[in-house]
Amino acid sequence: MMKRIFYVCILVFCAVCMTYAQADPFFVQQTNIRGLYNPAATGKGGDINASLSVRQQWVGFQGVSTQALKFSSFAIGLQSGLGVTCIIDAFGPQRSNNIKLNYAYYVPFDDVAILSLGLGMGIMHSVYKADELFGNPIYDPDPYIPTESQTKTSPDFDIGLEFNTRHFEIGGAVTHVHYSRYDQNLVRPLRNFYSYSRIKFPINNYWDFIPGITWHNVRKSNTFELNVAFRHNNNFCVNLVYRNPMNTGIALGINLMTGFRLMYSYDYGFSNIGNYNRGTHELTIAYNIPMNTTYIQNKLRFFRWRMF
User: Fold this and answer.
1) Could you give the CA distance from residue 77 to residue 55 in angstroms, rounded to a whole number?
2) Fewest beta carbons less than 10 Å away: which of 62, 196, 208, 288?
3) pTM of the model
4) Using alpha carbons only, what angle is made at residue 87 by residues 85 and 89, rounded to the nearest 5 degrees?
5) Each residue of 181-234: pLDDT tens digit?
6) How many CB atoms lie within 10 A of CB 30?
7) Strands annotated E in the chain
8) What's the pLDDT tens digit per position in 258-281?
9) Domain coordinates of the chain in residue numbers?
């Protein structure tokens, strides 16, 4: 019964994809791994940083997961961030592998703020395996969903910008910029639009209160996320998340030892599918090597706005 429900859900998802196009996977921890979708965040902080994120969506169903690898550093001579990202996404018969080289150029405004402009260039390989979907017992398959397998490998580009002060951040990005809004293909996603902002309110010498909002758009589909974080001295953080429609989550972050950070989150959707799954888990392991400390303290004071 569970397997049958899963494939019916996959059919519905594929029908939505044909109408609104494929969306980028949405991480609850997206406030901490901005560089996955916004190249303007590449190298932010000035350190060498590497992270591995794993998202297990719809626990109780098989074949729904996302893995993301991110590496970045900052080059003083170029005043730029350089990095690479790799996202492997699977949703039933749909799979995609997306690898990009990212570049961000940072423009400081005296001792007040810093603006970054970013570009991501890479390759996206997408596969739709119709035999995995239609080879299973399902009821009334949608006639608009392709019954033949599809594969596509093509260049892929992202653009973005981000503006930071000591206590404020705002940014935006467009992924898959060269895809037309009229492309309707299970292996060819439309443009994804992102914008986000957050502000930091120091409570005392140890605690910060950090509310934020994120908007994600794919053609006619809009997703809003409200995020409230309580951070203790850059060593521990608790994030509470609400995402429309009716999706809530919690994220925890902690510094395990010098350079190592561990982040875990759980979110649950209060929809019909919620009756058949056990929510979604995310785990991120990050390693940070301090670099360029003297230069950043003297030239880019607001650059190192660390956050879980």
Assistant:
1) 36
2) 62
3) 0.83
4) 175
5) 555 566 777 889 999 999 999 999 899 999 999 999 988 889 999 999 999 987
6) 23
7) 48-56, 64-75, 80-91, 94-109, 113-128, 150-164, 168-175, 192-199, 201-202, 207-218, 221-232, 236-243, 247-257, 260-269, 280-289
8) 889 999 999 887 765 555 567 889
9) 2-299
Multiple choice CATH, 2-299, 3.40.50.360, 1.10.3720.10, 2.40.160.40, 3.40.50.11460: 2.40.160.40
Instruction: Please tell me the number of Cα atoms within 13 Å of 8 on its side-chain side.
Output: 11
CA distance from start to end of the chain: 40
Amino acid at 109: F
Instruction: Count other Cβ atoms within 10 Å, centred on residue 269.
Output: 18
- pLDDT confidence of 110, banded at 50, 70, 90? confident
Cα 214 to chain centroid distance, Å, stands at 11
Transcribe 110-157 into DSSP letters: TTTEEEEEEEEEEEEEEEE-HHHHHTS--SS--TTS-SS-EEEEEEEE
Q: What integer is the mean pLDDT of 58-69?
A: 76
SS3 294: helix
Q: Is 99 left (phi over 0), alpha (psi -120 to 50) or beta?
A: beta
